[in-house]
Amino acid sequence: MMAALSSKVVALVAVFSVLAAHGARAQQPNYNVEAASSYRSGWLPAKATWYGQPNGAGPDDDGGACGFKHVNQYPFSSMTSCGNEPIFRDGNGCGACYKIRCLNSSNPSCSGKSKTVIITDMNYYPVARYHFDLSGTAFGSMAKRGLNDKLRHAGIIDILFKRVPCNFPGLKINFHVQHGSNPYYLAVLVEYENIDGNVVQMDLMESQWAWGPPTGYWMPMRRSWGSIWRMDTNRPLRGPFSLRIRSDFGKTLVANNVIPANWTPVPTTNPSSNLANCSTDYSPCSV
Q: Which of 172, 186, 256, 264 lies at 20 to 30 Å from 161 by C-alpha?
């Protein structure tokens, strides 16, 4: 009796051990962040779903976990997507552009033509290694003419995707000073970064005194969330401020004195039009 009970206990422990080991393996990421974010990877397989209104931008005015606004307007034009971790990358993927397409072999409503989407949010519940949760507009754009709704009725489909450079003709990179900013705390939303589209590091340079020359010293900012970067200090910050951003491919943009000494936290503030060249080639520039 004891021997039989003992053997059952041993067997039960073995079963739990297998389940625990399987659970541990299941928790390991099975995606390749470098492949998903590289321009050289070519087409990769993924799953696509959609949310929001059928012809909407997901949320009309809220870029979700990236902090972008007016995503139903140019350059987003409702062609937006949530990305799971290898695409969103804890905010490093915010603003990145991807080509997506679905094939007729996967769904007869698919056109096979590629469309470009911009990452604006985080997908917290992925159903595949790579998962794009698209706006209704973006999902329907992959359909043959007149079959947009039919494709959306599929709910979830197989797609192919690849990272591509962003192209926002006529736009300049924007730095929005966020509400709540004050002399001891500065939060800045960065958007419309042409080419690579995203920012992985942002630095700030103060002036020696108000309206004075720059200090020559770059202070690293830290990501607050999404595409919003912040600087916290125990003393008042001195403007004008210069900003330096770097993309995940090492391209750097320097915007000198882009935030004036008498700045105010206005969400829709545009930087000087002298930033036009910066938005196209990431070369150093003066404002």
A: 172
